[in-house]
Amino acid sequence: ILLISEDLDEVLALSDRVAVMYEGEIVGETRAENADIEKIGLWMAGTR
After folding, report:
1. Which of 4, 13, 31, 44 has the fewest CB atoms within 10 Å, i.e. is most exposed?
2. Which H or E run contains 11?
3. Distance CA 13, CA 22 (A)
4. Where are the chain's structural domains?
5. What's the pLDDT at 47?
6. Region label for 23, one of left (φ > 0), alpha (ψ between -120 and 50) or beta (otherwise)
7. Is pLDDT larger for residue 26 or for residue 48?
């Protein structure tokens, strides 16, 4: 199942893994239980 959302609380509650795409490329991936919301936010902004 692919879930697309900008609501990080929702994503982390419903997912086992999180991958962030920016401009057509996966810029980061992590397991939901190890997720760092600040780092995911940077990935969403295009910062690696």
Report:
1. 4
2. helix 8-14
3. 22
4. 8-44
5. 85
6. left
7. 26
Q: Mind listing the pLDDT tens digit for each residue in 4-20? A: 998 999 999 999 999 99
What is the rounded CA–CA span in Å between residue 18 and residue 35? 8
Q: Quote the tokens at residue 20.
A: 């962030």
Q: Maximum Cα–Cα distance for the chain, whole Å?
A: 26
Which amino acid type is present at position 28? G
pLDDT in tens, 17-36: 999 999 999 999 999 999 99
* Bridge partners for 31 per DSSP: 17
CA 40 to chain centre: 5
